[in-house]
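The methods section describes the discrete structure representation at length, but only in general terms. An entry of this sort, consisting of the sequence and the corresponding backbone structure tokens, reads as follows:
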Amino acid sequence: MDFNKRLLHPLPFYMTYSGYLSSAQESAALQDLEYLQQTYPHDVKRYQSKIAEILDKLDYEGSMIYDEYPDCYSLQRLADSVVQILRQEEYGEESQEDNSEKWTWITSIVQVLLCNEVYKRRHGGRRSGKYYF
């Protein structure tokens, strides 16, 4: 009987690929990612929360973060604006102490965190202020 049901409702071609993640598997992968993000160092957690706060404003239908191939330049500009906000929070308006090596590393970390957060949102992450995983 089960065999006949399968004949009536064949799987879509993409579900037959060996690397295909079902929605349950993808949800489990996102849960694992969320758990591992809790182990980030304190400063990286702070960067992550700032990125999430900024992406909350860009989380709408038609946003560039949901483009099939997001523009690398736009992601770079977004990461640079996050770094500027972090600099202002750290040093305030009066002093812009420049430790270029430190901020080069922070910029790299912010770019990686930004890509991870965009991935999460594109694959069932935060919507309307809550997580679905």
Q: What stands out?
A: The longest helix spans residues 100-122. The chain has a mean pLDDT of 78. DSSP finds five helices and no strands in the chain.
